[in-house]
Amino acid sequence: MYKKKCGTRPVMDETVSINRIVGGRDAPLGAWPWQVSLQVYSLGVGYHHICGGVVITNNSLLTAAHCIKRWKSPEFWRAVFGLHHLYHPQYYTRERQIKRIIIHSHFNKETYENDIAVFIFKNPIKFNDYIQPICLFPSSLFLGNDTLCYITGWGTADEKGEKKHILQEARVDIIPQSICNRYDWYGGIVTTNMFCAGSASGAVDSCQGDSGGPLMCYIQDVAQYYLVGITSFGRGCGRPQNPGIYVRLDNYSNWLKPFLQSRTTTMNIHSVLILLILRCITFHISL
Does the N terminus or the C terminus of the chain have fewer Cβ atoms within 10 A? Predict the structure, then answer.
């Protein structure tokens, strides 16, 4: 059986790669093995990319609830794992049909509150070096100013641009809620179930087609990536003082518990000790 810790990138050298990202660029092959392309079938077109997703177990993934508003039946969807170029699958690329879609019961399509959903696969996925689950973020984990956080996706490069065919990656800053809710930013619409990330200048942002994808942070002490947020919405793309807004995942730990029973990764003694230490420190996003 293939066994790796969650949140690891088997084909990447973290000592080389993690400090190189300063803005959006093509992701290296195999850089984000939990990234999924969620695709919908249309007559005359076939399957085409709609949203991102992120692998959390061998039979489930997370995405944004608003991605599903037009295609509520699982039969329309498939999940594609291990993709780099959207239209050039490799020998390690896998596809899964969807058995069930669970949208948060309190998702508000007007405000995007509780913009979270789970896809359950018809058949479990087998992990390999290019397909891995991400770690779910402990609510007590501290994000300092030097924590490396990233977004990924095949979305457009600007508001009116075309979707990218090669997976894109960018480093982002977590922006305190008190700043993001200022009158000249988002004016109070960012709730405690959300947070902002990107840059004040708009130089780094997510855009159409990136929804449902991960915002993850690399915790050097444990050498693992943790899922912190899910790409949700924003005012345009790349506008100053209008960064991307993400689902604050640690608020949904109880909601997610039923979907994590079949998680194939195991917690080693080192992870247990780290989590005990982390009980004493708090999440850095200001409310």
Answer: N
**211 part of the active site:** yes
Taking the C-alpha atoms of residue 269 and residue 253, their distance in angstroms, rounded to an integer, is 22
Pairing of strands 224-233, 135-136: parallel
* Identified catalytic residue from 115, 205, 210, 250: 115
First to last CA, the chain: 43
Which of 37, 49, 60, 66 is labelled catalytic?
Answer: 66
Express each pLDDT in 121-171 by its tens digit.
999 999 999 999 999 966 555 666 678 999 999 987 766 667 789 999 999
Name the 3-class secondary structure at 140.
coil
Which one from 37, 211, 232, 250 is the annotated catalytic residue?
211
Query: pLDDT by residue (tens digit) across 72-86?
Result: 999 999 999 999 999
Sign of the dihedral defined by the CA atoms of residues 183, 191, 150, 125, in that order: negative
DSSP state of 1: -
Q: Is 48 a catalytic residue?
A: no
Active site residue 129: no
Written as six digits, the tokens of 190 are 């960012």
